[in-house]
Design brief:
This protein is mainly β. The chain has a single domain, classed as Calycin beta-barrel core domain (Lipocalin, Beta Barrel), CATH 2.40.128. Helices cover about 10% and strands about 55% of the residues. It has 2 helices and 10 strands. It has a 10-stranded antiparallel β-sheet with strand order 4-3-2-1-10-9-8-7-6-5. Strand 6 and strand 7 (about 90-95) form a beta hairpin. The protein is globular. The model has no long low-confidence stretch (mean pLDDT about 95). This is Fatty acid-binding protein, liver-like. InterPro entries: Calycin. It holds the Pfam family Lipocalin_7.
Length: about 130
């Protein structure tokens, strides 16, 4: 699996602006943007597990491709129902409700890049990770 292993946060592009435009509380956005997080990716049979570890908490996402799961978003406990689609070195996670954000995760060279898009927000945001 292309995503397997541990990844360390490098930088963001437009994440603060995107989070605020998507409705995150402005006074809490800084706690989730430029924080040193790691992502540990594993695959066990049909299941993918991505563990996000940050300074305040860890979040574990466990899912199967093309199956609905409960996704915890950010360090504040917000949850949504989502579906993940995994195809080689690309993964897309989208909320099941209309108008929710889509998060694309992909491996390009030695980077894992998360790209965030949401209807009604005229720009995208990105998070970059390098193998740890």
């Amino acid at each position: 699996m292309a995503f397997a292993g541990k990844w360390a946060f490098v930088r963001n592009e437009k994440m603060r602006e995107f989070a605020i435009a998507a409705g995150a509380p402005e006074d809490k956005v800084d706690k989730m943007i430029d924080v040193p997080i790691t992502v540990d990716c594993k695959k066990d049979g049909d299941f993918y597990t991505m563990t996000f570890t940050g300074p305040e908490k860890s979040i574990v996402q466990k899912f199967k491709s093309d199956a609905e799961f409960t996704e915890e978003i950010g360090p504040f406990g917000k949850k949504r129902q989502a579906i993940a689609k995994v195809d080689g070195d690309k993964m897309a996670i989208r909320g099941v409700n209309e108008g929710e954000a889509v998060e694309k995760r992909e491996i390009i060279g030695d980077e894992m890049i998360f790209t965030f898009v949401k209807p009604g927000i005229p720009f995208m945001a990105k998070r970059y990770f390098k193998r740890a």
